[in-house]
Structure formats: structure tokens, C-alpha cells
Known about the structure:
Elements: E1 2-7, H1 13-25, E2 29-34, H2 39-45, E3 51-54, H3 61-65, E4 72-75, H4 85-90, E5 94-97, H5 103-118, E6 134-138, H6 142-153, E7 157-161, H7 167-172, E8 176-177, H8 181-187, E9 190-193, H9 207-210, E10 218-221, H10 230-239, E11 244-247, H11 254-261, E12 265-267, H12 277-297
Parallel strand pairs: 1-2, 1-3, 3-4, 4-5, 6-7, 6-9, 7-8, 9-10, 10-11, 11-12
Amino acid sequence: MKILVATQKPFAAAAVNGIKEILETAGHEVAMLEKYAAQEDLVAAVADADAMIVRSDKVTPEVIAAAPKLKIVVRAGAGFDNVDLAAASARGIVVMNTPGQNSNAVAELAIAMMIFMARTQFTPATGSEVSGKRLGVQAYGNVGRLVGQKARALGMEISALDPFLTDEQIIAGGADPVHSVEELYACSDYLSIHIPALPATIKSIGYDLITRMPKGATLVNTARKEVIDEEGLMRALGERPDLKYITDVMPDNYAALQEKFGLRVFATPKKMGAQTAEANINAGLAAARQIVDYFATGNTRFQVNR
Length: 306
Ligand code: 3PG
């Protein structure tokens, strides 16, 4: 089978070598498309692909239509909002993710972002400490739990909201359960977002929730920019000069936010949460193994478009 590894944001070299070794040892052929300039390059590259490994690359209906032999797409990572599941399902193409494989990298970045903002973006201005503060985690999945664990070690108190977990499970994960998003925002000196971008979550965090946060609070977004209502965020930061926002997913209105709010806002230029060698190796090799297993045994354990 021909496996296309299409990564606009390439994996670390060690991950690429590992992916090739796994796929070639199983008798597959590997084609690489890295740092491509335009979506048309991806459309052209899928023409003879039987399988694809992608990151945040956009697997649109156009890409799927251009890939008549495609049988499986594995998103090496957690969020699969970049893959058009309906178009894939309509063709019987299996879509998988690799849950948990890059979670630690994202969790470490969320912690780093809290401290970066507590210390006024590493300027000489007097900052504050995260120890003794309350961190709200929305939601308590693979990344959220790791953020909670690391924050506890820093002396923070943790509150968590997760519609898929019982109170007992949240408590076992070291957090105090809360039962509404309003309650979570109202109690959190730091709020770390770990929800996927879905129709129900897109633009779900806006003025009303953000202004519920306590005095001096910081909102940390290592999830998806789409879950923020950017107009609401702008209004909330304008009315509440004590609030801060840091994000690994640059907002569309970042220039305006920076101009108005200076050191109270920060965005990474390109999503970097999962961009560590370790996360690339974990997620990339898991993706390669899942493809080998799928073609060898039909294993669909991590399929997301059932
Ligand atoms: C994920 O959903 O796994 C993360 O957002 C990482 O995305 P990336 O592979 O594009 O860095």
C-alpha cells in the first residue's frame, strides 16, 4: 500500500525515520509531503495514496475526492476537526486519531503559559505566583488530567468540569468536581481549556463566561481558537483590565487584541502545543502502527467516524 505522510508542520526527523521504518518493514511504500505551500499540493499528492497520516492538515471533501484509492486517514494527534468525517464516511474511509500520544507536550505548554502570564511575559514588572491559586480545567480528558496533575505539584488547587466523568472519577484524578461551566469560570484564577471544536463548543467561551472569572484571572487556551467568541473576549478584556488571555492558537483578531491590551494577551505564531520530539515520535509512530494493523488485521480501535 502507498502511505502518504502529509504534514504542513513536519514531524521531528526521529519521528519521520520511525514512521518510515514501521511502514516499510510491513511492506508498505511511504511518500512524504512536508511544509507544502498550498492546499492544491495536498490535493495533488493524494492521487495514488491508499492511506494518509496527517497532523492539523485539512482533509477536505476536495482532498477525499482526489484520492480514489484512499482507505484510511490517521490524524497523528487528538483533535480531528481538520478531517471532514462526513465526506470520509460517505466513501467508507476509516478515520482514526491517536488519543493521548501528544497530551504531555500540550499539558507542559499550558503550565508554561500560566507561569509566563503570572510573570508578565518575562518582563521585569512584578508578577505573581501560581502556587495557592485555583486552576479550573475544562475538560478533564487526557490533556486536562495531566495539566491538573502538574498544577497540583506546583501547589495549585484544581477544579474540573467534564460531562463524561463522574464526580468520583474527577476526585480520583485529584480535582474538585464542578457541575456547570459558569461555576467553573467563577472559581478559577486560571482556566485551562481542553475541549474539542464541535458545533456545540464553537464560540462557546465569550463575554458572559470570561467576565465571571475572579479578579486577576488568566484564561489559557491550548485547545482550538474556534471555541472562543473573539468579539466577546475583546469586550471582556476591555471592561475588565485585570483579566489576561494566552493562547496557542492565534485568534483572528490578535493584532487588535495586542494593540489594545499589550502584555495582557499573548498568542504563539503557529500552534506548538504538540511540537516536541517526544510528542511527534509518540503520535507519529502510533499512527504508523495503527495503519499497519488496520491493513493486516482490520483493527479499527481508534476509529472516530463509526
Ligand atoms: C492535537 O489535536 O493533537 C493538537 O492540537 C496537535 O496538533 P498538531 O499535530 O497540528 O500540532
